[in-house]
Amino acid sequence: MASDSDIRLGIVGMRLGLWHAGAIAEMDGVSIVAVADNVQGKLPGPNVSLQEWADNLGAAAYTDGVDMIENADIDAVDLCVSPKWRVPLVEAAAARGLPVLLEKPWGTDMAHGQAIADIIRRSNLLHMVEFPLRYFPPIIELKKLLDKGPLGRPFVVNAEIVMGEGPAKMPEHWMWDPENGNGAINENTCHVFDTICYLLGDPVSAHAFGASYHGAEPTLPDGAVANIRFDSGAVASVTGGSLGANALRTPTWLDVYAEHGQALVTGIDHMFDTLTWGRADASEPTREHWPNPPLRTLIVRYAIEEFVNGVRSGQQPESDAEAGLKALALALAVNESVATGESVELSW
Q1: Same-domain check for residues 74 and 139
Q2: In terms of domains, do 171 and 88 share one?
Q3: What is the tens place of the pLDDT at every residue in 179-194?
Q4: 177 shares its domain with 71
């Protein structure tokens, strides 16, 4: 638990880290006091160095993330690097007992994901996976409606998030490296996997169909539809990948058929903003709308607020290593099922 009211964060990885920095700038009681990146050219403007950007922020600049974690005057660490590079960074955070926020996806494969989880468990480290969708107001409200609320137990869910097709045509992108992002289903569809696990509980099997339609990495699908069975008896159908049109700004939707009614959550730009729901015995639906953050890059806002509150209170956030491993297991099962045509039992 941080003793000061102002939480001092260090960020490692300044490509996605700039998104986090923009969201943190909108928050009270938290500041960025250290940044680290070992590659130049990731900052606004081609002639802005890491040091110049850090100086403008009033932060210390490091070219090595482990060095920053070991030596910077920080209360917590925000890891915005891709999965391949995380183990030594998490080890360094655990050695200092610094709470750590990890960007999704949780890992490259189950062995890698378990290695990260083991470090965290051994050190009893406060941590959080940056799964933003579960923290958007419509999903929080939907969870209340389902958990002993007017809608009751969820039975069937349909959900979709399909990012723009650009990355599907970029074989050099880290997303397609099996030892890093391990495909669009792991790197992006994990958003929906985490959300439906948050609503439905533990998944037990997945059967998926799809393909590498654009062929950035022939062994990894860039489009897939998965049917998922849960321990509760609920089932879900998820459409994911990277075949979307950028002009549509990644529309997102999730509908739930529950014991006493139905709910639909929609939005754009990877952000849910509207919840429409009704009981089976109602004549009119209820519709609630929450304005999204003005910039797509602020998708991380609600999740980072949850992490900062956890650091301040010492309370472990819900999107933990177990949540990360569930989403990872689902992504790998979908990839395997697409390749084999068979249903895959889940474990994590």
Answers
A1: no
A2: no
A3: 999 999 999 999 999 9
A4: no
Distant-in-sequence, close-in-space partners of 211: CB < 8 Å, separation ≥ 6: 221, 222, 223, 224, 338
Closest CA to 190 of 348, 27, 65: 348
Q: 10 Å Cβ neighbour count for 219?
A: 12
Angle between helices 321-340 and 110-123 (to 10 degrees): 170
Query: Residue 102 is part of a domain; what is its CATH number?
Result: 3.40.50.720
- Tell me, yes or no, whether 103 lies in a domain: yes
d(CA 144, CA 59): 40
18 with 48, same domain?
yes
Please give the mean pLDDT across all residues of the chain.
95
DSSP per position, 66-132? HHHHHHS--SEEEE-S-GGGHHHHHHHHHHHT--EEEESS--SSHHHHHHHHHHHHHHT--EEEE--
Instruction: Determine, yes or no, domain membership for 202.
Output: yes
**Structural domain for 218, as ranges:** 133-294+326-345
pLDDT reported for residue 168:
74
Which pLDDT score, from 0 to 100, does residue 333 have?
Answer: 98
Q: Which tens digit of pLDDT belongs to each residue from 299-332? A: 999 999 999 999 999 999 999 999 999 999 999 9
Domains contained in the chain, number: 2
User: Tell me, what's the pLDDT at 170?
Assistant: 86
State whether 119 and 194 are in the same domain: no
pLDDT for 41 equals 67
Based on the fold, state whether residues 270 and 146 are members of the same structural domain.
yes
In degrees and rounded to multiples of 5, residue 176 shows phi and psi of: -90, 0
Query: Of the candidates 18, 110, 104, 11, which has an alpha carbon nearest to the alpha carbon of residue 62?
Result: 11
Q: Which one, of 301, 293, 305, lies nearest residue 267 by Cα?
A: 293
In this predicted structure, the answer to whether residue 274 has a pLDDT above a threshold of 90 is yes
- Tell me, what amino acid is at 66? V
How many CB atoms sit inside 10 A of residue 22's CB? 15
**Same-domain status, 266 and 333:** yes
pLDDT at 10 over 90: yes
**Residue 287 counted as domain residue:** yes
Residue 42 pLDDT > 70: no
- SS3 label, residue 241: strand
